[in-house]
Amino acid sequence: MPRGRLIVIVAPSGTGKSTLIDRLKAEVPELKWSVSCTTRPIREGEVDGVNYYFLDRQTFSEKIADHDFIEWAVVHSNFYGTSKEFTDTGLKNGVNMLFDLDVQGADAIKRLYPKDSAVIFIEPPSVEDLLKRLKKRGTDPQEVIDERVRNAKKELLRKNDFDYLVMNDEIDKAYAKLKSIILKEMGKSERG
Ligand code: ADP
Ligand code: 5GP
Questions:
Q1: How far apart are the first and last CA of the chain?
Q2: Exposed / middle / buried, residue 33 (Cβ in 10 Å: 0-12, 13-18, 19+)
Q3: Ligand 1 pocket member 11 (CB < 6 A)
Q4: Which domain holds residue 183?
Q5: CATH classification of the domain holding 72
Q6: Could you tell me if the CB of 121 is within 6 A of ligand 1?
Q7: Measured in angstroms, how far is the CA atom of residue 189 from the centroid of ligand 2?
Q8: Confidence bin at 149 (pLDDT 50/70/90)
Q9: What does the pLDDT look like over 77-134, one tens digit per residue?
Q10: pLDDT grade for 3, boundaries at 50, 70 and 90
Q11: Is 81 helix (H, G, I), strand (E, B) or coil?
């Protein structure tokens, strides 16, 4: 049986990654979505166990000690981690998997699974657009937005370090490009 592929999407907060991933989840159901654990507060509209497993710090620390994560990182002052069991089982059973990670997580996956992984970086048209999108989304207080924009500037310095770069200027165009990359990575053509 072929090993599954690990497809990682990286994008500064506010780029439109969740919007694009929601469409992928609906249109490419055979791609299994990795649900990370996080200590960040749940946002309105999010569902525990669907968007993330929302944990307190103590439970997250116990999972680190138990080696439950293949990688974990502190992002925007909260902890995020990827399930080792999900990834190992998927690889063994030939399941193609989709991960939404920050640059530290993408680096870790590349280091651990250089042959089995592909990383797609999604960039916003500009930092000003990113700020507008975060404000329009309306899910975060101003200080959280400020921190995310500061981190975005750092993450954007890494945009050429991965396997693919997609610009999310016009959403339909960005989605079409992302989907074609993913289908290629899954060993399929656009025509199926
Ligand atoms: P992320 O998951 O990368 O933090 P979201 O998917 O939550 O970002 O998108 C942030 C905001 O920007 C949302 O309000 C979304 O509707 C909007 N958005 C996403 N893509 C575009 C785009 N191409 N043009 C304009 N607004 C967009
Ligand atoms: P958000 O709080 O907006 O959902 O996500 C914040 C950042 O954490 C995003 O860049 C997202 O990709 C990243 N992230 C989510 N889950 C994980 C994970 O399991 N590991 C790592 N390293 N980053 C993650």
A1: 20
A2: middle
A3: yes
A4: 6-191
A5: 3.40.50.300
A6: no
A7: 29
A8: very high
A9: 899 999 999 999 999 899 999 999 999 999 999 999 999 999 999 999 999 999 999 9
A10: confident
A11: strand
Q: What is the dihedral of CA 63, 117, 86, 10, to 10 degrees?
A: 60
CA 161 to chain centre: 16
What distance in Å separates the CA atoms of residue 113 and residue 127, rounded to the nearest whole number?
31
1 lies in some domain? no
In contact, 112 and 6? CB cutoff 8 Å: no
Residues with CB under 6 A from ligand 2: 13, 36, 40, 71, 73, 75-76, 80-82, 100-102, 104-105
Range list of β-strands (E), the chain: 6-10, 32-33, 37-38, 53-54, 69-75, 78-83, 97-100, 117-123, 164-167
Total of domains in the chain: 1
Q: Which ligand is nearest to the CA of 147?
A: 2
pLDDT tops 70 at residue 4: yes
Ligand 1 mutation target, pool 8, 24, 133, most atoms within 8 A of CB: 133
Q: Are 34 and 82 in contact (CB under 8 A)?
A: yes
Q: Which of 46, 101, 122 to mutate to test the pocket of ligand 2 (most atoms within 8 A of CB)?
A: 101
